[in-house]
Amino acid sequence: MNRFDHPIGTVLKAAKSKRLKHVEVFATSDKGLTVRAFQGQVESFQFSESSGIGVRVLRQGTWGYAHTERLDSDACREVLEAASANAQLRSGHDQWEPSDGPVPEVKGLVAPNFDQVPSDAKVQAALELEQVARAADGRIINVPYAEYGDHLRLVRIANSHGLDRFYQASIAYAFVMALAAQDGDRKGGSQFACSRSLDFDVSAIAKDAAARATSLLGARPVPSGRYRVVLENRIAATLLATFSSMFSAKAVQEGQSRLADKLGSIIAAPGVTIQDDATSGGLASRPFDDEGVASRPLTVVESGTLRTFLHNLTTARRAGATSTGHGARASYSSPLSVAPSNFILLPGQPTPEQLAAAAGHGLLITDVEGVHSGADRISGDFSLGAKGFAVLNGQIAHPVHSIVISGNFLDLLQGVEAIGNDPNPAPFDLGVTCPSLLVRELAVAGGSQRAAPGMGMAM
Amino acid sequence: MIDPTVLEQVLRRAASRGADFADVFIEDRATTTLRFLSKKVEEATTGRDYGAGVRACYGDRSVYAYTNDVSPQGLLEAAEAVSRAYSAPQKTLNFTLAGQPRGGSGASGDVAQRLEVLRRADAAARAYDPAVTQVDITLVDSLQRVLIANSEGLLMSDVRPRTRCRIMAIAEGNGEKYAGFSGPGASDDLGYWQVVNLEEQARSAARTAVTMLRAGYAPAGKLPVVIGSDFGGVIFHEACGHLLETTSVAKGASVLAGKLGERIASEVVTALDDGTIGGSWGYLAVDDEGRPGQRTVLIENGILQSYMVDRLGGQKTGYVPTGSARRQSYRYPPTSRMRNTYIAPGTATPEELISKVSFGLYAKKLGGGSVLPGTGDFNFKVEEAYLIKGGQLAEPVRGASLIGNGPEVLQKIVAVGNDLQLTPGMCGSLSGMVPVTVGQPSLLVSEITVGGRQ
Predict the structure, then answer these.
(1) Do A335 and A289 contact (CB within 8 A), yes or no?
(2) How many cross-chain Cβ pairs, A to B, lie less than 8 Å apart?
(3) pLDDT for residue B169
């Protein structure tokens, strides 16, 4: 069937002869291309082809892991030995009832034309990203990143209980960053698009990146204080992606989620409903999760009430629940964890303009920095460098920079006052989607004037 | 690992359509990771990463391919893919591979040794305070063997042991949880953990968690800040280091491009990037293009002396490579990256720096950060902070992000302390995540935006 037939066969045969009852092989291969353009030329080309297997062994109630990128017979036997030895480092109470039930058919994971798009078209896309962004406005001084990339991924899972299933998925993306300058001020703007194949409007992405950069020129801080805030869709989605681990049963069981005792409780404003559906056709779709459990739609938060955590087979057994099909391995080298797939905060009615109008006096945040360090997934606290626009009398006013927005993600969910009609995925975090959100209040650090405690808005 | 005659064929094939340079990077890395949670081994993984990257350069343009198939056939296929992307007027590259492959013991520890490290860290963190309710420790040790050859005849190998212990202590109280971190590490085998004061590191993680759990929030706005030496170097790493890598300099995409010989920082600032500190987390005997490790003076008394340069960056800018070419693995072509980056110590004690501030923030321990080189706007997280009132340390306040603009903040460093410390971290950029240390003595910065809530 594919290149993993031999390694999988070797591992499972060796498992049988060693009387190891519970063994799983998780195999992935990727084949991809990346093109970067700079100053009208192809700056770099990159071809990639990689594959590896991760082996899990359950012994004495404990999982042991090992992985290898060497796939010869010796390496396959060694990786089984290593996983088996790692399982003996402690004793536990885990059991395993691998799922072999039917899986849904998820259509459109591989674009029909994926293999037919010629390399020239991909090169052209990268060149066009750069050219259009550069030409979009006289104030664009540089386009340091203009990149097109795609890859085809194969995921195959086989185990000692007879399960053996696989799927393929294609991804194509474009990313561009433009730098604008005026009167000594410099601003960056970036845009990202992603699909199953090269079918997005490259020119529109480039123009948007340039417009984002130029629109921030002349920005200034606002005074420190507490502001009503509209979070643009992609920023709201980035925060949702960052804090999605709070909904993981693994984080709950490991004492690392503040939602631990909140099942059935109100954790968000009544308008907030969050669903996860790996069968929806979104970019994180898959017929089964990374331990072979069938995908199915799930309502995580229903009108503000927390309905369920995301589970894999292990967390579900520990909690007396059933797996929700969210077993996830970041790669064959990573142990099993829990992660969302297409994780969506459902949109509302208002347009982004209506959200700004409803904000009255406040801020529209269109850019945040330092999410990997400035957001604490355990406490929910975040403190992030931000840029955007002042909102005055419901209208977008001057651009704003050199501010830090701070708050807690759970307070933010409770403080959602309105939800936009413009769902958008988080850049680089494909499945997580959120519309623009109007949020009651965030702390803002800005100008040199230090805010007295409890000081209201001053603009 | 591989017959040099095969490598010669691969290089010739990669360069066969007019490239002026080709190189190949082959990596075999064994990694053991143990995660210790709730006083038990939670996850144990062992891994073997094995692959090769082949690159061809045409002036300042490059083509790269990587594969896990490191057989002669697989390498030649990657080289063929690389050669086909461009074609330039045919050149003949005359070279014979020669070199002094470096040895290395590659000694590896056993399970008992690893468990001992984890138990020591866990016990020390828990003993610090009963409010510490969870300790999550990940111990990684790896041995990376690399073989590098290029069409200038270079043949180089290196054996790179590394080990790191990431300790997260979680304190709990009043319905809140707060985590504190510490992450010692070295270019060494597991024997390192016999030498380092691991217990002190574990207590530091616990102290941050417990102190911050009980603290209020930091003030918001522009304040004078004393930045302590514990991961404090992240400010220089973000505010300046990334802006001096030819990765962005070569494209004019750094605000510090073209400023060699100019004053870019306050005159109290002298800064280095040093790959030659033996055993350090950012140690690099040879870089990922096969050049020997170097100690590079970046800034002397505020004047920019050097950028950090890889081969392609050197081609684009004319600067001489500084042994700074690095990559996470064979999956990335190399780019110019930092190694051990630090501000040289001054004479003031940290207490003297604090005494100069009437109202401000003492950022005792810092976390991660990021920067956009094209604008110089950076941010980083303060993990543990205290107010300064009347020149004295006052109550603890919860970490907040600090933001600023690199070139501006470099001018606002008004005094440098005498307590230089190098702290390990992982730096992410175009060529992936690489181990670096950030270092600095305590610094007094006259004004920086503090993202607090009060």
Answers:
(1) no
(2) 252
(3) 97
What dotted CATH number matches B4-213? Answer: 3.30.2290.10
Report whether B13 contacts B76 (CB < 8 A).
yes
Alpha-carbon span A170 to A153, nearest angstrom: 6
Average pLDDT (B204-210) is 97
**What CATH code is assigned to A5-215?**
3.30.2290.10
Residue A151 one-letter amino acid:
H
* Stretch 305-344 of chain B: residues touching chain A, C-beta under 8 Å: 331, 333
Cα–Cα distance, A267 to A39 (Å, whole number): 50
Domain ranges (residues) in chain A: 5-215, 219-459
What are the residue boundaries of the structural domains of chain B, listed by start?
Answer: 4-213, 216-451
For B372-401, what is each residue's pLDDT tens digit? 888 999 999 999 999 999 999 999 999 788
Radius of gyration over alpha carbons of chain B, in Å? 23
**A106: exposed, middle or buried (Cβ count in 10 Å: 0-12, 13-18, 19+):** middle
Query: In the numeric block, which tokens belong to residue A28?
Result: 């992935």
Q: What is the pLDDT of residues A162-216, one digit of tens each?
A: 999 999 999 999 999 999 999 999 999 999 999 999 999 999 999 999 999 999 9
Please state the length of chain B.
454
Contacts of A456 (CB under 8 A, 6+ apart): A225, A226
Distance of residue A105 Cα from the nearest chain B Cα, in angstroms: 31
SS3 B150: strand
- ipTM entry: 0.88
Tell me the residues of chain B between 252 and 291 that have a Cβ less than 8 Å away from chain A: 252-253, 255
- Could you read off the pLDDT of B418-444 as tens digits, one per residue? 999 999 999 999 999 999 999 989 999
Interface mutation target, options A3, A36, A48, chain B, most CBs of B under 10 Å: A48
Yes or no, beta carbons of B50 and A87 under 8 Å apart = no
- CA atoms within 13 Å, Cβ hemisphere of A223: 10
The gap from C-alpha A228 to its chain's centroid, in whole angstroms, comes to 26
